């Protein structure tokens, strides 16, 4: 494989990234670090939603459900028997879960697989539906999952949730996950399978006529997306160290949808940038929910003002700049050379096809 | 399960079914015309209840005046919603419209949280609705009887408008084929506004009546009913008004009677609607009263 | 090569196609003509598996393919173009054709994403084939362009190239000459004959363009309101009073 100039740039960027991680881990205070980790997790979540909504063109609103499945699975597998006993004081945990105690990485993978299974089970019926109906069906499934989780006292501890989860979502866990997600999506997008996904998105009927098993492609895409969502949910759970069914409402799906729409549906780069942007903005705007002092006047912030801002942002984007930040374009080093920041590439080395 | 208890539950189911029907109609009308799920419809329902509440609590108006004002205001809000969130996107891909709908819904909910406060508010139920009526050993609150009666009257009016007036005919034309309707010199925008307005009007009716039966308001009170009522509309056959009514009653009935007979399932109450939805979508996606739509290649 | 037996297609109360019986021999170029709404595209849809017929059978290369899902039909060797061009709008010209190659590549998500050696080899072969096809239709220079940015005539050619990428034995063309001037349609006639010889194809086409049809088809079937009112060689069809009546109305 020839070492093109662009590959060198990418390697340099990767190295810089690792250096940043080390520095951040050493110097950031725990709060900033937490926000940073949240950004990484949102990258994973946004990409998983983008896979099914942006690449395959299926409007799925059930993401929170798969996140919940992943989070609960991972939590129940990684909690020690003592922690479980402490949590399940209302009704004891089912015996076959009581003694299970796995290290984090296997638990994470299992969580993803269970979520993928859920995606497969839900997708098989739901993906036969079109557009709006798919959206409502997936939303419905997410709600069913939530209601079930709230009621299965002896497995999930019901509405009380699970507290005291081990804080496994550290720098060297979440950021590799984020990086892997990005790498996966980029490779997929450039492959023939990625083309098949986009073909299904652009014109299902023509795709079928070209020999693509449309239904199968949809299910595979959906299950893969659910896997990633499950992993993201698990990472989230182990960052916040507590999970309960009320966390996984439609509002959570909305947040991720916001990221994807802002970044540009179908753009990996957009999702990454927007994940950072929205997560940081969420934290920064937290002040809106409490009293504000602008120096020259004080206002009582109101809870919910933050979400008002985000709703306005979402609507603004969809009404005025539908394509979001990146449209469906991707990052490439040639952007910098076009802007004059990097030397221009030699003719013939830069082609789209 | 004693007979008096069963009759009581039936009365409740009837009332709940009526409320669901009122809200479901708004969904089905909008979907029939614009092929759009108006996610914000449930929040319009909530707004109707709140406007009525504030008319009484803040402006000290009598309940019937608040009722009328709230309905009118909410209908106008529905028209405004369409103008701002949906009309600019009429030629855009469906996904954009849906995102706008979701955004509008969240916006309304959170503005409500900011304006009204997140804590539940108690509604002052008008006296005549607070009467405990006794039929032998069965006791039913008057509100539970008034609601279905009200609903049937409203429905009769609506069906008359849709079936017998020119506006109604125009509505049906637009919902069958928007472009063809335009060619028939029908002012499509006006009809769409009318549809949103009347759908929101019905939702406001539903909201206020709901607040009389379940007298606690909170800004997110429209979320679950909204979702369930869309499901009711789908079950009955989306785009079909009679279907929405049927779906609403069916859903309300199933929800309450299942819990009445199987109290252990009370926690799963909200899931019934979704399970029913998925069953219907798999078995007969066009709904009970709906008709199949074929896509031309 | 292809045979249909009494294929009938009803949509609710409407009978779009009634008792269609066509027979196409290998390497023939056959035309399906008739006034608008005669059911020609519906016939295509039934043959390619878009719709399962209400009655009747479709037999391809001696095997029954009635009711097979459309991607299976394509795998058996039948490809088509569409009346309203259905290109993949967000993909480039080359990528559109490559989608047609996906079938032959027969990979799964993991092999493709991980760029395993087996995948890379197939990808190279597919690209070479795709570029060659583009050259055949004269679109080689537009390979990197967005498919929908091409002018109409080129888009039609791209659709044909994409269909050819699936390596069909039978090619169905839905109004390939639509919107073309006389010179372009003559070029198209040559082109179709050329690809028929080069790729060993059999061709069934729908067209309204009478000169084109008469010039290229060896056999014609005439449909009106779903019913086959005439069939045979073009010269005879031209004189057939029923056909004239169908197109021009009763005098």
Helix-strand sequence of chain C: EEEEHEEHEHHHHEHEHEEHH
Number of strands of chain C: 11
Assign an overall shape of chain C. Answer: globular
Helices of chain A, by number, come to 16
Oligomer: heterotrimer
Largest β sheet strand count, sense and barrel closure of chain C: 6 strands, mixed
Overall strand count of chain A: 4
Would you kindly provide a written description of the structure presented here, covering whatever features stand out?
The complex is a heterotrimer of chains A (353), B (297) and C (251). With 353 residues, chain A is mostly helical. In chain A, 68% of the residues lie in helices and 2% in strands. Chain A has a two-stranded antiparallel ribbon with strand order 1-2. In chain A, strands 3-4 form a two-stranded antiparallel ribbon. The two termini of chain A are 18 Å apart. Chain B has a two-stranded antiparallel sheet with strand order 1-4. A two-stranded antiparallel sheet of chain B has the order 2-3. The longest helix of chain B is centred in the N-terminal third of the chain and has 32 residues. Chain B starts with a helix and ends in a 14-residue tail after the last helix. The mean pLDDT of chain B is 85. Chain C is 42% helix and 23% strand. Chain C has a six-stranded mixed beta sheet, with helices on both faces. In chain C, strands 1, 2, 3, 5 and 6 form a five-stranded antiparallel beta sheet that branches. The longest helix of chain C is centred in the middle third of the chain and has 21 residues. At the B-C interface, loops of B face loops of C.
Give a quick set of tags describing it.
heterotrimer, A: 353 residues, mainly alpha, two-stranded antiparallel sheet, two-stranded antiparallel ribbon, disordered C terminus, C: 251 residues, alpha/beta, five-stranded antiparallel sheet, 10 helices, 11 strands, 42% helix, globular
State the gist of this model:
Chain A is built from 16 helices and 4 strands. Chain A has helices spanning about 5-25, 30-55, 65-80, 80-85, 95-100, 105-125, 130-150, 155, 170-190, 190-200, 205-210, 215-240, 250-265, 270-285, 305-320, 335-340, and strands at about 160-165, 240-245, 290-295, 300. Classes of the chains: A mainly alpha (about 350), B mainly alpha (about 300), C alpha/beta (about 250).
